[in-house]
Amino acid sequence: MNAVQSTTPPQKIVILGGGFAGVYTARYLEKLLRPAEAAITLVNRENYWVYQPMLPEVISGSLALADVVSPIRRLCPRTNLVTREIEDIDLENRVITVSPGFRPRQLKLHYDYLVIALGNVTNFYGMPGMLENGKPFKTLADAMVLRNHVIRTLEEADVEEDPELRRKLLTFVVGGGGFSGVEVIAELNDFVRAVKKNYLRLRDQPHRCVLVHSRNRILQEMAEPLALFAQKTLRKRGVEIILEDRLVAATSEKAILKSGEAIACKTIVCTVPSTLPPVIQKLNCAKDKGKLQTNTGLELKDYEGQVWALGDCAVVKTVSGKEAPPTAQHAIREAATAATNIAAAIRGGARAQFSFEGLGTLGSLGHGAAVAQILGVKLSGLLAWVLWRCIYLMKMPGLNRKTRIATDWTLHLLFPPDLAETKLEPESGIQSQHFQAGDVVFQQGDLGDSVYVIQEGECDVLREENGEHKLLATLRAGDYFGEMAVLADQSRNATIQARTGMHVLIISKRDFDKLRQNVPAFDEVFRELAKRRASGNAVIPSGSAET
Amino acid sequence: MNAVQSTTPPQKIVILGGGFAGVYTARYLEKLLRPAEAAITLVNRENYWVYQPMLPEVISGSLALADVVSPIRRLCPRTNLVTREIEDIDLENRVITVSPGFRPRQLKLHYDYLVIALGNVTNFYGMPGMLENGKPFKTLADAMVLRNHVIRTLEEADVEEDPELRRKLLTFVVGGGGFSGVEVIAELNDFVRAVKKNYLRLRDQPHRCVLVHSRNRILQEMAEPLALFAQKTLRKRGVEIILEDRLVAATSEKAILKSGEAIACKTIVCTVPSTLPPVIQKLNCAKDKGKLQTNTGLELKDYEGQVWALGDCAVVKTVSGKEAPPTAQHAIREAATAATNIAAAIRGGARAQFSFEGLGTLGSLGHGAAVAQILGVKLSGLLAWVLWRCIYLMKMPGLNRKTRIATDWTLHLLFPPDLAETKLEPESGIQSQHFQAGDVVFQQGDLGDSVYVIQEGECDVLREENGEHKLLATLRAGDYFGEMAVLADQSRNATIQARTGMHVLIISKRDFDKLRQNVPAFDEVFRELAKRRASGNAVIPSGSAET
Questions:
Q1: What CATH number is attached to the domain comprising A523?
Q2: Which residues of chain A neighbour B507 with C-beta distances below 8 Å?
Q3: pLDDT tens digits for A42-52?
Q4: ipTM of this complex prediction, to 2 decimal places
Q5: Is A145 on the interface with B (CB under 8 A)?
Q6: Residues of chain B by 3-state class (helix, strand, coil), percent to 5
Q7: B291 and B276 in contact (C-beta within 8 Å)?
Q8: What is the largest CA-CA distance in chain B?
Q9: In a domain, B544, yes or no
Q10: 20 to 30 A Cα–Cα from B281, which one of A280, B105, B194, B473?
Q11: Cross-chain Cβ contact B64/A66 below 8 Å
């Protein structure tokens, strides 16, 4: 596994990425090549493969967390798995650099043949506040974080006395009306409706599930009648669908749409924007709209016979010239083509060309309803839903997982969905947050649980006295606020309201205290501020605010 | 739910804690009292109840994460659940203060009758480095964190080339030979042995599981022949048992025993020390060794007829004068007694006295073996194991959970244990770490991924040149090191070795960069250091080290 060039067999094949494309390439290669011919290594961040089509069912707990993933070591028993991050791809010297593990040293992997199947990653660039408040929906962690967040909002709504805040807690917004967005809003709606019964104060409260889509109908990938059926079904189940509009920004209190509409809510899921992984972005080779450019044998341009690219990070064209969509069924066939061609490169033989044109599309609309378009036949409703479950169950590799999923589904028909919040680690570290003009950061009387540093924008410091709001100061980029209450362990003695769009850094009381105690210069900054403020002058000097 | 005194029915009953004692009190009260008589509120940090006896099975994945917990709202459908932390108990004014939720405001709950059933918490006080490196085993999060950590060590061991580090990664130490410690080491050993097969480079590597216990035999709660049987069974399965010794300290590289023995390892589970929750520690009332003092009706001394205390946070004595041990079977009976007495206080009637003397004890030794001592009969081996499973399955409330657990167990008999690492959130925030004299913090050539601040102790800065180690400086409390490599994004240019026992604060590169960019004073401290160092003088000024 050291960076030593190998010229004799076994040839070193390195696969980057453990999604459908990467894992199936390894599986096909294990079948095609003997151990003496090739040593296969797969690099993936996680030691499991995620069965993407079933991911939305994690939200409601229809499927147990561990049942929508499968250990890569069991799927590809002959492949060496390296569970690390990929930091660099050096196509000239044929070396892959991966991140350090327990010991902070990088690891270098040499290859004779390389498969790049790294998929894409969520990208909220250009959407202010989305990184902090929007929830992506791509990985297992995303699904679990969303599930726990939704349960947390229900718990809070049940305790909350303020009807406005309770309405926010019970509003769920999903951006993007593709398969992923539709399945997420359907699951969310089913789940909230089912578990609300167990919350004594929420039983009779309405909840809102809103789907926002930029086109004039959802499910662009399907024929119009099916998409319209899906819209009708979702609306009948209580989902609001907003068409020809889209999410552009978010704060901790609302989702903001392009039309200017703002939806007050505490849950925003954004399924739309994705980009290529940074390690591919910095790769210097032929690209097409950022994606890796390949021929019909899936070889990377200028590296034919040495590097293959497939899945969502590559432009894959069939022999008929059509571009393959980013679906599991295509990724699996691409893997077969790539594996055949790698085997041919090692031991000679016929090369394959990618010619799969797709079998159809399937989308779930929540419990008991789906839309399907398979080999030209259109189906909708319960029948499509049963078909959806059968097809995906069949496609799940391994008897163990098949049995578990079938059991989960059966129990889910008999019992209500689970509502345990299995949040395992507290959120910590230094966070960022975005506020829009007019938003309140905290209110006079709130507990002082963190310190803020303005990175961008301006805010007003307001104090309420005898029912009147008095403007104490205006703070700008580089100013701090909120440390007074944290230092004295008191509640806030002023309200902070954003004057413009504003980005802040939030240091929790826990981290703030640790830093103050151990970095004297850090402590001094804030003690200096406190002193200036204690002198009690109405004009607050720049770099501070009496809060 | 506001802090307003109520004098008319329904009476306000508040239960603190959602373990066996708290949840069963709510369940009994729901049966005994009509909604018009009592409004029941339960406060717990989580919205689920953990079935403690089955927790060790989460490690191996025999039981799915969600199957060892049950939503409290389903167990006690008529009880108002408040999922927050308890910050204060005011016995004089009958008010409970709970932590803030989404909005940073505390919530106050008034009660007419109070049940305190807060259990105990893990406490590593007086064991240097245990907080940072020892893993507790009490909560669902503890079990999941341990499972993920063990899988992570296997993943790393599979990649690691250094045989010494690989041995450390494959060594697992558990402190405490009570039921919890024994069940954890048995599960760990079974799990590692079963999944090692799937790691190509680990198949033939030995692993070590070490149990450390302070007495001359494990399972002090059981008769000696059963404990000796348990020791023999564990040893036959490859577990090393160290008796009459105990864990006293830990670093990231080893477990340190009282005898002075150090076991090089990356996994330390410490099941022993527990203490009362801080909110009870600060409570001013009659106590016995820190625990709440009660009468045989489970009433808190001096608050009879108003406050009940039960479970692990109270000293509960039966009418015969024996102290009740902290087990589930006792907690459930204590709950029945307390509920009966609360109902009697509200509507009159006979009061109950706690008189349960225990049915016996059960302990699992891993797959297919257990020890049991029930109603005077002693059992061991497979029969005891089947009995263990039957009894605990019967005691699990709810058909849904019973079915799920029975299914999990059946599948676990048929298929190998799961090995997906479902770690969901990255560790972040400002961490602490403990080093012993002689320990290396980082080595010259390592990647610079964090900055260190010495809180306590001393360390040497060593540079290797032409095979020789040169002492560059000695650093003390308040000094920083490691920032050089982080600032320049380079590898470490010196080795740091602890000279004495040393506590450091570790700021990750991510947090360090955020702070530097936003808090100019913080940035200046480190820029000043860098400048001083760039001048290249051999004597390094205090407060800095060229690393």
A1: 2.60.120.10
A2: 515
A3: 999 999 999 98
A4: 0.84
A5: yes
A6: 30, 25, 40
A7: yes
A8: 88
A9: no
A10: B105
A11: yes
Q: What is the token pair recorded at A415?
A: 């019992």
Q: H or E stretch including A121?
A: strand A121-122
Structure tokens belonging to residue A57: 């069912």
Write the CA distances from A466 to A469, B203, B460, integer angstroms. 9, 74, 60
Q: Would you say B362 and B391 are in contact if contact means Cβ atoms under 8 Å apart?
A: yes
| C-alpha to C-alpha distance for A24 and A332, rounded to whole angstroms | 6
Determine the residue type at A274: S
Among A425, A427, A444, A492, most B C-beta atoms within 10 A, so best to mutate, is A425
Query: In the 8-state DSSP scheme, what is residue B323?
Result: B
Say how many domains are in chain B.
Answer: 3
Indicate whether A328 and A389 sit together in one domain: no
Is the dihedral angle over the CA atoms B294, B295, B298, B304 positive or is it negative? Answer: negative
Chain B interface, best mutation among A41, A43, A47, A503, by max B CB count within 10 A: A47
- Contacting residues of B for A107, CB less than 8 Å apart: 159
Smallest CA-to-CA distance from A422 within B62, B49, B76 is with B49
pLDDT digits (tens, 9 = 90+) for B85-115: 999 999 999 999 998 877 777 789 999 999 9
The whole-model pTM stands at 0.86
CA gap B91, B485 in Å, rounded: 55
Token pair belonging to A475: 């703070």
- pLDDT above 70: residue A381: yes
Residues A192 and A206 reside in one and the same domain:
yes
pLDDT tens profile B50-66: 998 899 998 988 888 88
Are the C-beta atoms of residues A59 and A150 closer than 8 Å to each other?
yes
Please give the residue range of the domain that contains residue B321: 11-45+84-120+276-347
Query: In this structure, is residue B6 part of a structural domain?
Result: no
Conformational region of residue A429, where left means phi above 0, alpha means psi within -120 to 50, and beta covers everything else: left
Q: Specify the DSSP element, H or E, that contains B175.
A: strand B171-175
Contact criterion met (CB below 8 Å) for A122 and A130:
no
d(CA A281, CA A52): 24
Those residues with Cβ within 8 angstroms of residue A163's Cβ, 6 or more apart along the chain or in another chain: none
All residues at 6 or more sequence positions from A261 whose CB lies less than 8 Å from its CB, including other chains:
A242, A245
Cβ atoms B385, B371 nearer than 8 A: no
Residues B115 and B23 in one domain: yes
